[in-house]
Amino acid sequence: MGGGAAGHGQASAAPPMDPAVLEHRREPRARVLPPRRGLQETATLPIPDELVAEIFLLLPPTDLVRASAACASFYRLVASRSFLRRFRKLHPPPLLGFLDDRVFHPVTPPYPSASAANAVALAADFSFSFLPGPARDWEVLDVRDGRVLLKRPGRQHPEMVVCDPLYRRYLLLPLFPDDLAASLEGPSAIKWRESFLVPAGDEEAATAEETSFRVIWMAQCKFRLFTFVFSSRTGQWGAVPSPSWSDLFAGLPSLEMATPLNTRQYAYGCFYWMAGYMAEAKMLVLDTWRMEFSVAESPPDGFAMAMVEAGEGRAGVFVHAHVGSKFSYSIRQNDGGSLSQWQEKKTVSLGYGYYIMGSTERYLFLYQLQSPLPNPGVFTLDVQTFQLERVCGQHLGHAYSNFPPSLLLSPTV
């Protein structure tokens, strides 16, 4: 019985426990603290729309599109006219592609605006089938701010139209009034002519309607330069005072007689043309805010050039040397007079095979013809960072910059 009693005592003892369970039991029990009232209230407070708007204003256009798609409240904020006006004043429209012979070539990944470019390519009609008459009759003259200027042959003067291919809207420009047409020296005296869109200045962009624009028509005659301006606000053409060549280039006998003008450039409200050749070359400047002509010193001579906006209201210029792979970058030094000097700031070496294709306010466009790489094409050089990025394949044409459709206020025409 004693053995039975002993056996019973062993049976009643606690069984050996798993070490993991013992370890778990040794852990101190966590104390549940009451929530701190101030922190809980702060975490649940919504961010005011005014603060969200200020944050969104700092985003680049492509990131803003993604942010607006996150929720309905973000989309309503971004889609408001007041926000879009502020955003478009702070950010230039991104490069979306190139327009060549009624064909749009969008930028390709990994370029930041590739997704927006694809959206525009699907939504817009770059064949211009919505214009009157056969689309093949229209020739693209200029592209700016989402608008396209085109012309087709006319009986006396070409017909011109400004359109918005994204919204398929257009405005046929009227012919020149008789008094302006009669002021020309005669059709046979016109040695060169061109038409182009005028960018809106900061003050003009802030006060003008989205559909307001201007078009300039210039004609180079034997003794004088003629300039007409069309305003969509008035629907009429007006004349800019036409200076004679002898007045423009006084004291420069080689430039006083119908000097050839080359390659229109733009920076900070002014258009520039090279006039003359080599050491005697000057720059003809048209201030679009005052609609006045002046003459400036030409940048260092080179094989090709393109102007950009260098900051602080100063124009910059990239010049490609006649031989080699170097591009010099100079900034115009304003001295208070009509003639200003150019100061070289930087030399950029990119290797052989790069050629200047054009420019916008911030970017230099380069076309790479000869390359050991398997995919040569169009590149951009950022004037602020000097970073080189591939944009798309081997496509030339007019650069098309615009905001994605979701960031547009309304049609531009």
User: How large is the count of helical segments?
Assistant: 11
Q: Identify the quaternary structure here.
A: single chain
Radius of gyration: 32 Å
Q: Examine the coordinates and then state which fold CATH places here, giving the name of the CATH topology of the largest domain.
A: Neuraminidase
Low-confidence segments, given as residue ranges, are 1-28
DSSP summary, beta strand count: 23
Overall shape: globular
| Named CATH architecture of the largest domain | 6 Propeller
Number of domains: 2
The chain-level mean pLDDT equals 81
Percentage of residues in helical conformation: 10-25%
Within the largest sheet, what's the order of strands?
Answer: 3-4-5-6
Q: Largest beta sheet, briefly?
A: 4 strands, antiparallel
Structural class: alpha+beta
Approximate strand percentage: 25-35%
CATH class identity of the largest domain: Mainly Beta
Termini distance? Answer: 111 Å
